[in-house]
TrEMBL record:
The keyword DNA-binding applies. This is TetR family transcriptional regulator. Residues 1-32 are annotated as: Disordered. The lineage of its organism: Bacteria, Bacillati, Actinomycetota, Actinomycetes, Kitasatosporales. The keyword rRNA-binding does not apply. Pfam families: TetR_N. It comes from Streptacidiphilus pinicola.
Length: 224
């Protein structure tokens, strides 16, 4: 092995030090990312989405505005990312629900459980902030794409349940049924978001979003 100047490979100690430095950097980035999301969620609950600024979020997280924009291009993007992080948790919870629960009941209970476990408002899963207003990036695509991704994730989880139960004649029939039920269920959640978001600010504190979710799914059950 060449050990002369210019041909010396990195020393093992230097390599380990570099890896440790990169590891610390990634951990710090992850902590900052989590701190921004946590601070935003708290401020949205206290002040509302519209009344919370990027400066407020950055200050609460202990960083500057420039640092915020290194992680998120806007506060809307932060909310959408938070929701995207919850979607796989929702799908996993749907798969874990008791087999005796019908598909829409499994979706409803999964939404409530994921929200409870993560300290989130149930309708945050529909790309809404504290007051459940629609938040959309400047290109108008974020909310639309997120809803589609959520419908697909829910449909896949429901398909797994239906195939496991063997209630449908074929896998294709189970997939179609799951797709229909998924979009019906996500439609219920969208209705909850809109109904809650249209309430005057003064009335929202007296409304339990979780109970609103239950009432909305009951409406769908009544039409079956």
């Amino acid at each position: 092995m060449d050990t002369t100047a210019g041909g010396v490979p990195p020393l093992s100690g230097q390599t380990e030090q570099t890896e440790q430095t990169e590891g610390r950097r990634e951990r710090n980035k992850r902590r900052t990312h989590e701190a921004l999301i946590e601070a935003a969620g708290q401020l949205f609950q206290e002040r509302g989405f519209e009344s919370t600024t990027v400066r407020d979020i950055a200050a609460a997280a202990g960083v500057g505005e420039r640092t915020f924009f290194r992680y998120f291009p806007s506060k809307e993007s932060l909310v959408l990312q938070q929701v995207r992080d919850l979607v796989p948790l929702l799908a996993a919870e749907i798969r874990r629900r008791p087999a005796a629960e019908p598909p829409l009941a499994a979706l409803r209970n999964a939404v409530l459980e994921v929200a409870r476990r993560n300290g989130a408002n149930p309708a945050v899963l529909l790309a809404a902030s504290g007051p459940l207003r629609v938040v959309t990036p400047t290109d108008g695509s974020g909310d639309r794409h997120l809803l589609f991704d959520m419908e697909e994730a829910v449909a896949a989880a429901l398909t797994d349940r239906l195939v496991r139960e063997g209630a449908d004649a074929t896998a294709e029939a189970a997939s179609l049924r799951a797709s229909v039920l998924s979009r019906a269920g996500v439609g219920v959640l969208r209705a909850v978001r809109l109904a809650y978001g249209r309430l005057p600010e003064a009335e929202r504190s007296s409304v339990d979003p979780a109970e609103l979710v239950r009432e909305a799914f009951a409406c769908l059950d009544a039409e079956a």
